Amino acid sequence: MAEVKVQVDPEKPEHERRPMLETTRKVLLAGMGAVALTQEEVEKIVKKLVERGELAQKDAQKLLKEVLEKRKKEAKRAEGELDRRIDEILGRMNVPTKSDIETLSVKITALAKKVDELKKAQSD
User: What is the pTM of this model?
Assistant: First the structure.
């Protein structure tokens, strides 16, 4: 049987040297926007690709890490967007924020202290 040698051009970008890795990466990352994949689901997909020989173990670990980091960033972004929208809705409803309540609490404490001082001054 003839031996096949694959020559890798180090000058080419990684995505040109490993087309299967790049294609899989693009598909998984594109899917992140449409479906929130769990870590278990991503691991299953990558494991199947490794078992079929379509992806090297080293590349699989790199891909898994990249996809899960992207997922984490997307979750943080979504959380921030949700917080912003909730704040906007509460603002429209005229509901005081935590900061508003804390400011009022400080003012009430200061006023209570002044009232106590006035009462003490009157009784002297």
Answer: 0.45
CB 77 within 8 A of CB 43: no
Question: Cβ(37)–Cβ(71) under 8 Å?
Answer: yes
pLDDT digits 0-9 by tens, 81-90:
888 888 788 7
- Token pair recorded at residue 33: 């926007």
Question: Closest Cα partner for 58 from 70, 68, 46?
Answer: 46
Please give the full DSSP string across 23-84, using - where no structure is assigned.
Answer: HHHHHHHHHHHHS---HHHHHHHHHHHHHTTSS-HHHHHHHHHHHHHHHHHHHHHHHHHHHH
The Cα diameter of the chain in Å comes to 110
